[in-house]
Amino acid sequence: MNNTTNTTSTVLLSPSDSLLTGTFTYGHSNNFEAYLKELGVPYLLRSLALLASPVVTISKKCPFESSVDEGCLWKIRTDTIFRSHEAEFKLNEESTTTRMDGQTVRFTFKKEGDFKLIEKQTNIGGPDVSTDIIRDFSDSSKMKVNLHVKKVNASSVFYRTDKS
């Protein structure tokens, strides 16, 4: 008989956390190609990215039932017809991942207020580039994404496809 206990549970999310989690489908973007070019993404991959209609799923699991984010494992999964990417992280802790363009990056997420997840990415190897990605969930029907690299700003809007 197995007497092990699984201590990881899905937390009942606070109202603000329920806005930060869910499934979001791409709506539109502004200046995204210039952003990708400034990141150093090759032309062919930029062209494919502009054709993609990503679906982003954000989830959160915590080691115990609590409304505090400490120790919680977040996951952001992005699916396109070309590629998929998944990043797991804890808030305010540095992690590494390989982006869809093949670039390995260090990244850190922090939560700002109740409605924003802010990601800072820095390349490991390759061009010396950092980018800030701000995901804003203040409107419960969508996720607004603001992207900044060097002097280039871009934005995207994703519409919630699940019920919050």
TrEMBL record:
Molecular functions per Gene Ontology: lipid binding
CDD domains in UniProt: FABP
Source superkingdom: Eukaryota
InterPro entries xref list: Calycin, ILBP
Ranges that cross the membrane: none
Gene3D superfamilies: 2.40.128.20
Protein family (similarity comment): Belongs to the calycin superfamily. Fatty-acid binding protein (FABP) family.
PANTHER family: FATTY ACID BINDING PROTEIN
Name this protein carries in UniProt: Fatty acid-binding protein
UniProt source species: Lepeophtheirus salmonis (Salmon louse)
